Amino acid sequence: MSTLSPMPSGWFDRIAARAREPRTLLWFALGCAVLLALRKPWALHTPQLWAEDGSIFLVQNEQMGLRAWWEPYNGYLHLLPRLIAWTASRIADVAWWPALYNGAAFLLHLGVLVRLASPRVLLPAKAGFMLALVAVVGTGEPLLNVTNVQWVTAFYLLLQLFLVPPATVAQRLRDLALLAVVGLNGPFALVFLPLFAWHAWDRRSREAWAAFAVLAVCAGVQARFMLQANLALEGGGAAFRPLMGFSILGSRLITWPFFGPVAVKAWPFAVHAALFAAVVVFVAWRTWRAAADRPIRAVLFAAFVLVTVACSIRVRADTWEDDNLVNGDRYFFISRVLLAWLLLLEWRAPSRFVAWPIRAAFVLGAALHVPHYAIPAPPDYRWRQHCDPIRQGTPANIYTLPEGWWIEYPGRPKP
Q1: H or E segment to which residue 266 belongs
Q2: pTM of the model
Q3: Overall average pLDDT of the 403-412 stretch
Q4: DSSP-derived pairing of the beta strands 405-409 and 396-400
Q5: How far is residue 191 from each of residues 12, 113, 136, 204, 228, measured CA to CA in Å?
Q6: Under a CB-based contact definition with an 8 Å cutoff, are residues 145 and 40 in contact?
Q7: DSSP element (H, E) containing 294
Q8: ∠ CA 401-405-410, rounded to 5°
């Protein structure tokens, strides 16, 4: 799986070569972290709990203690939010908990960027990949809150597939521990397990088989909880509507990122569906035709297909009447980033008939995205002024984000 390229000749090649240096990539990762903070600055300077941050993870931490770590929610474990809630409750006053929650989500996102910058990760176009992880179009729902941190940490699993084998025992243990923690945080151990199985069979190394074994255990644990929960899919038993399903995918993954939100409303469903089909076929064709980096493209494309199919089944967007660009946006985050990665690999395609349209699409998308880059601040429910019931352990209803959400705090259980 080589990512080597010819020796740089022109000025653009020299800049590109410099951008691949580990130190430069690390600084770029930190720069992307700044862009992430600018995306949702209010999440850091006026932190508030988001949805299940309070009503599930905070409350169950108090009610259940360590048992909450193994309490499934929505059919599976959320280990990282549980750890964050447990830690915050033991190191700081309740007034600081939203800051600790959001700060932890920020650090986990930064960790993905730093991991991607590592020389151990054999991927091309790393600078562009990092930028996509923080700047890709969306409502920002998965960013800087622990409830949705699973959508970001899923990329730790994907990056494992491109790692140089560990050189030391400490590296090997860190890799496996990271897989275990992330694998028990959301359903993505199940989604990406086929990729790890193929990776282990292809590499036939001790490290690859160990990674597969760890993720298989995590997937088995999550699958057991899902089977016990007997989850009902969105949309119930409604018949599948192909045009609407592909239209939603097209509007969320193609039209909105590259042509702006106005185009989503202005264009017919059939146009969005056709765009999605055309782009997926194009990416599949380019993956098949690739030479040196075909293994990389194949893994990324397979990951895109797996997560897109899984999320489409879970959210049943084909049952929606229209696309308001808000409903269920977290379900499209990983697919949107992966598709951006696959298209970024065409930025320097040998054929100008491939490279220039891709470049133009990214430039157009960036220009249309800039005015909407910073997500507007929501209402401030003044957590510090209303969190005293939690401090005192008395029952109360406390408003949090998103707007219209509140914590039904039952009071601290008696010893």
Answers
A1: helix 261-266
A2: 0.93
A3: 94
A4: antiparallel
A5: 38, 22, 22, 21, 18
A6: no
A7: helix 294-315
A8: 110
